[in-house]
Each structure stands twice: as C-alpha cells, then as structure tokens.
Structure prediction request, 536 residues.
Amino acid sequence: MIITLPVFEWHPVYLSAVVASAALLLVFVAGTLAARFMTRHSFAGQDLVDGLLLLPLVLPPVVTGFVLLVLVGNNGAVGRVLNERFGAQIVFTPYAAILASAVVAFPLMYQSARAAMQSLDAHVEDAARSLGSSEWRVFFTVTLPLCWPGLVAGAVLSFARALGEFGATIMVAGNIPGLTTTVPLAIYFATESGDLKTAALYSGVIGVLTLGMVAGLNSWMRHLLRKRK
Amino acid sequence: MRQQNVLPKTSCIYVLLHNCAREQAGLLKRISPLPHGRSWGKQPSPRLMQEVSRRITTLLTLILTVLTMRQGTAHGAETILVSAAASLRESLTEIGSSYIKSRPDQRVRFNFASSGTLQQQIERGAPVDVFISAADKQMNALGAKNLVIHATRRVLAHNELVLIVPRTSRIPIESFSDLSSPAVRRIAIGAPASVPAGEYAEQMLRKLGLWNRVRLKAVQGKDVREVLTQVALGNVDAGLVYRTDAATTPQVRVVKAAPKGSHQPINYSMAVVTSTRHSAAARAFLNYLQSPSARAVLRRRGFIVPR
Prediction:
C-alpha cells in the first residue's frame, strides 16, 4: 500500500482570493452604475439591454468563456488590437481569470442592485434634489446608503460566484500552475489525475473560506441594520 | 418499421400517464377542502381540470416517446463503448465505420478524452468495454487493480512528439531552446499528471534542461487536442503534440520532433475492460484493430505501427 501525500499549494488559494476580490471590485462599481442607469432612464429596447446584461447568468459559463476567447484571444477582435498596439496579451494570464470571473458574476450584482433601487421611494431622492443636491450627491448620500443592504447582498453573491468560476476561466485563463490555476481548476485537474486527496483538501479550503465570508458579512449586515434602527 | 414499433408504445405510455393524471386530479378534488375554513382558492371547474390533465399527459407522452425512440435504434445490434486517447479520434472513427460495415451486427461508440481522464472514468465504474491508452502508465494503473483483462493487452501503435507553431506565427522558433526566449510568451502542453502527451513533454523539457524556464508559460490543457486547438487558434506561440495530431490541421506547422531518447517511448496500448458485458464483441473489435486494413488506416494517419 503506497500512501501518497496530497500536493497542496497555497498559490491557487491566494490567486482565487485575489481574482475574486478584483472581480468583485469591478463588478460592484459596474453593476451599481448599470443598475442606476437602468432604473433612472427609460428608452427603446430597454428590455433587450436588460436581457443582455443578465445574459452571463443564464448562459452556460463555457459559452461566456467561448465568447470571451473569440473577443480577447490573440486573433480576436479586441485581443488583436491590444496585441498589435500595446504588445499586451490577455489570454492565459491572471487578468483573463479576473475578466472571466467579473463577466460571469456581473448579473448577480446588477440584479441585486436594480432590485434595491427599484424598491427605493423616489420621493426621498426628489426631496434631496429639491433642497439643491446635485445628482451625484443624491446618489452618494441618499441612494447608496438606502440601498446598502441590497448592494451588500449582491456583492456577497458575486464574490462567491467569482470564487467558484470554472467554465469561462479555464477557456480564457487556461491552466498554468503557479500563475493562472485557481482553486476550482486545481480541484478539476487533481481529480483528473486521480489525486482525490488534493481535490478534497482544496474543496475543504474553499468551503471554509466561502462559509467564513458569507457568515462574516451576514453578521456585519445585521450589525449595520441594528445600528440604523 | 420504426413507426410500427413506436406507435403501440406511444399509446401505452399515453394511457398509463392519462390514468395517472386522472387519479391525481380526483385525489386533489377529494382533499381540496382544507380544515379551519381555509380553501384552495377558487375551485377550478372539472372540465378545466380534465383539459389541463390531458394537455400535460400529451406533452409527457411526446417527451417519453422521443426518449424511448433513441433507445429503439440501438436495439438488435450489440453496442460496445471504446474509451480511447484523444489523439486517436480521426483514425478510430474511420476504422470504426469500416468495422461496422463489415460486421452489421455490431455497433461501436467512442469516448475520446485524455488517457488520465479515461482511466479515472473506468476506475469509477464507467460502462466501458475497451480502453486504448496513449501511455503505458494509465494502462498499468488499471492492470494493477485488475480493471483490465491482462491477457487481452496489445500494443496498437507508436507515435512521435513534435513541436508545433501557428502557421502564421512570426516569432522565430526553430529549436526547442528557442522556447525559453522571452519572445515566446505561452506554450501549450497537456497537463503532465493526466495527459500522456503532457507527461512526455515534461520529460523531454526536463531532459533538455528547459523545464524550469518554460514552466510558468506552459498552459496545461486537459487533453492533447485542446493543446492543438490553442496553437491552431494562435492563442499560444507554440505547443507540444503528437505528429499525428499536427497532421490533422493545416493551421499549424511542425518545427521539430523531440530528440530520440528524450522521453519514454510513446506506446498506445489497448485492452478489454474487466467489467465488460460484451466480452466477445470487445475482443472482436480488438482483433479488427490489428487487421491489415486497420493498420493501413493508422499508418496513413502518421502512426508508427509494429509489423
């Protein structure tokens, strides 16, 4: 009987945390602004735009990955320009992992932010405007604080989704151990090679991380809400 | 013929489902008055209920009919499932179709993936009849657990590892040592732990003293065909695949073959899986793979076939 030790490394855990945090940052800003735009304006084809923004949520992640690969690949529409103008390459870098996670997690943030803003009483904002506040001031001092619980909920969902991203990530970021291999990819390739102990270890670590984060944010939220009352 | 087979089955399913739905509707009506003065809301009329149950029955019947029809086509012929290394896709598909032409009572289905993936699937009880591996390692692992029948194990063919670049590449890559140059940003190889082509690639790069310099630019694919595609699409600057893979697309150019002795010999071995329920059919297919016509196909596709 040969006892093999699991090949656990911290790099995938560290990379996953960085990628998910960076994706969350992008998605938080983009999702909140998009939700604000979509709730404040009405225009022709709004439902179509809304559908497009939610598309990564309903599409299989590999389809999202495929579309991204076609766009930012070295011979893709965006990738070619970046490569020729700036000599920059996105595919198979950690930036590609951030991009993939952000695109896939975006609809969750957008959806939560939009729901929070729709349920907001427009009169409150109008009151601030009538007192002479600029649009941005209204946004930062009235809209954002009142929508905060919805935004945090969206952020938690997006972060968790970004942390677990696999399908789109493997297509655009690839599997370069020590550079682009995130925890989900490490789990997949460990299982493929029959190293179930390593796969179980990574699964445990990501489970503990996610649980800790969700529980922590929930208790913080409760604290915030209690303070507000 | 198929129509005659399916029609009675369809009506059987319909009658069964319809009775079931009617019973359910009856049951719902009987239990519908709730205690404590609550109710199910407005009572639906019996006719509406009937109509709804009939529509649902029709839909379910259609779905089930379609599902059973697919099974019906395989009826009569004996079907074996062959799990084979990804690099054998074209050759085996061609050999398989000529096989079923010569043996109309047989059907062959293929499952192509990396040998490591296929090994894992067989270890977890996938209903596979024949395993064809691109390396001895995976076959040995299954042999050690008695998951393949040792007496049926044969060598199918040999192959060669080559360095390829995208056809339109402008990066000067003429030798293996060029891979460590900063101009080469990404190299695709198979994941060494589960993809034989990747394991051979790692052995060779280590032998040439290049591994540590290229490790952090090596994108590890889940099978050798993914490596080929990444090179063909130009998303990486170079890749290491088998000569036979490189020959399947005009979008890549072969730069060089791996030096002799820089990696273990590339043996494709095949064996019948122990848990097979089609032992005779599986053995017959293995024999056919060693026939002159099958060997001719392999040779034409670039494999080195033992005489």
